[in-house]
Queue: 4 jobs
Job 1
Amino acid sequence: MKSLQTLLLVAALGCSTPLLAETIGVSMAYFDQNFLTIIRHSIDKEAKARGITVQFEDARGDVGRQTDQVQNFISAGVDAIIVDPVNSASTPAISKMVTRAAIPLVYVNRTPGDSQLPPGVVFVGSDEKESGTLQMEELARLANYQGNVAVMIGNLTDAGALQRTRDVERVVAKYPKMKIVQKQSANYSRSEGMDLMMNWLTNGESIDIVAANNDEMAHWRHYGAAAGR
């Protein structure tokens, strides 16, 4: 996480501008998701260490609210902007708006939907194809390459979640004794993940492996509570 927070600030500070930023606007998709909270606190910690002022805004999962927040950052004259996108499809409009203002822009966590990021815009996040493949290969190994697989998709509007899911499907298809029996979205949420798992088990679904697009949905408490263990 230290490398992530440093990379974010370095990207925001140095992206197409000769001067170091003094103020950075940060719009997060949600404040109440654990991983995003870790990112937010890490940015704040690194910024304070560098003497940078950061303004955080919670988009609360609303694309329109996030767009307004970015516009407000531009109007306020911030030196750089960091965005954790609510929706991958919304980023081309955000990129266009921010680059017109000649402000460096860093997308974090959720893969932006731009076909190609314009100059002055960068993405800091994981390689979703590698993540999904490594995840499912390890789950397959632990299950001795057999069993019924349930997939918890993060968000159907998130390009990263869809890519991870495709990679899980690709790995499962390699092994004749494995098959996907359920595949539904739980919106990256711990509570929705628990509800989804409870529904599957209550309906008598035979599940040996659960592949979730993020840690929150895959929290072990979900399954213990859902199964009554």
Note: Residues 34-50 form the longest helix (17 residues).
Job 2
Amino acid sequence: MLYLQILIIGKEAIKKVIYRKYYRHKKIDSKIRKLRISNEIKFTKKLASLNIDVPYLYFVDTKEKSLYFEYVNGCTINNILKSITQYQPNIPKFIGITLAKIHNGNVIHGDFTTSNLILRYSYINENEIFNNLNNAPYELNDITEIKLCVIDFGLSFLSASVEDKAVDLFVLLKAIKSFHSEFPKLLETDTFLYHTKLINIYMFFF
């Protein structure tokens, strides 16, 4: 998989190419790549209908197995957490709210990690988060001002299963435990505003 920043119809875009994996049988690889393309299209539309912020999909080249998405101006949550020194509690809260909305639509993301979440219009300067619309510190005290864009739906699927939803959050918590241990509060159960019966299942994994 490769991401290239390009211009399309006069706008900045990201070209996402799903390349063939030569270690896989050709027919199996073709089916997997078609499924990934189909998932990206299907769940970009589905999440947009759930009022989840997702990149706009401009164009799909089914022959090349590539997609052309809106370029999302901002930093990934992964990069933000690795750069800042002061804990920002509203970031994980909004992540939890977003995942709950996704699951309420019976969508399983499949790879819900901090690398697939982008804080729109953000940039890092001297370990602080700034808004590139006004070059002022990003307003994080008001949770309604947070613009979180979700990307990468190649592994997404529909499911009402509690277990599938639990695994989705487990993937996030495991990534945080592995890569962002400098913020211990991120591993507390009340950090994420995701108040469902799934919490007990998540804690079982730990």
Note: The radius of gyration is 18 Å.
Job 3
Amino acid sequence: MPHDTFLNLSIEKRQSIDTILLNTFYDQPVSQVKVAEIVSKMKMSRGAFYKYFDDLEDAYTYIINKYAVVIHQDIIKYIQDDRNQFFIGIEKYLVWCSQLDHNEEYWKSLRLLTESNDLSAYKRFPLASDSPLVTQWTDILIASQIIIEDHDESVSFLFFIMELVMNSLTGFIANDWTTEELVTDYRFRVKWITHGVAPNITIANESNLLQ
């Protein structure tokens, strides 16, 4: 996590650093990035960088988490616009993403998350039961008549939906799909989730699986 010295910077200064980190990690794999390159772009000393972050990996994890939260919030916003059609809201978000200018910061953040070669993009940041994000998510589940009563399961489902979105976008990018092809593939995934792929197959009792 970034140090308090970074969090106490002005919004403008933090945004400037965020943009530099995003562009740097977007342009090349984290394994090839050097601290010297970042501090040069930030026009600060190497020592100043370490007042903000523990190391390069810390800065990388921070920027991944930042944009993961932004994307979570935007997915929720799109779902809220179609409360009674949960997956339609997500589809509209995917369509919007597919039509972004590739020079936009938001598109770069999507590419950064989809092209991450390590586990950083899949690490789940903690979410308290009373956090605004969880509260919004709970309201959506209730409005969509999705019955999940346990907090841990609700949060797990939130990250599952995030992974659904990112996997769809990864396919879109990797296969150079059109928006229509992205939507077709996404609808396949929704069908598998909502209707299952083999409803007549009996799954072994959970207790037996754990033995």
Note: The first helix runs from residue 4 to 7.
Job 4
Amino acid sequence: MKKVVVLDARAGKDYSEGHVPGAINVTWQSLSNMQPKQGETGWGVVLPPDQLAEKIGSLGIDGSKSIIVYNDPKGLGEEGRVLWMLRIAGLKDSKMLNGGFPAWKAFGGEITQDVPPVNPVAFKITTPDNSLLATTDYVKNNMAGIKLLDARSPEEYSGKTNHGEKALGHIPGAISIPYNNAYNDDGTIKGIPELKEMFNKAGLKPEDDIVTYCTVGIRSGFLAEILRMCGYEKAKNYNASFSEWAGAGLSVEK
């Protein structure tokens, strides 16, 4: 483990009950702006570069080691959201642990409750990779030229339920691809050929300008990373997602 940094993206309670030795607990919220309320502008979006760099440095990450992020596949794709934020910060040598914590346990990996010491370092984001990020204005101004993917559940997409957004339904023209369609039944991520077939059936092409969204960019962050893994290199995560879209009173459909 000395050659890599391991990040546990689960909630603090789950981390405290047992984790991979040496893993540092990093929730998506810790790297995001949680000051606004849901529906208000900026709720849950990735921190500005200077604040994001400070948070990453406080974890002892200086960019010299590979980073592995894990979660529990029964979650909301938090490992993908954390990975997406690390890549915005320029930490390209970052990966998800396939199958997450359950796979580690099934493999017979050691589990501990010990919290590793962390030595903060000075980390600087020279140029944030904003090609990974879509804003509300970007989506509004490019509706005709992008492929919108709704990473939420079919029930949320159809308007039967939601996660606290101020409207029911989905952004007009969006295609429903629930984020958890990328998982096998055992919680591992499907192989690239199977994933590409799923995206192809949805009418996606590698050269498309794709924007994923969910409630606040967690599930869609995971889906965007899966898309890029499969060669859809223009995939962006609409971080503020449907919470900000609905909160702004923009049009929706069911």
Note: The chain has two domains: 5-107, 130-248.
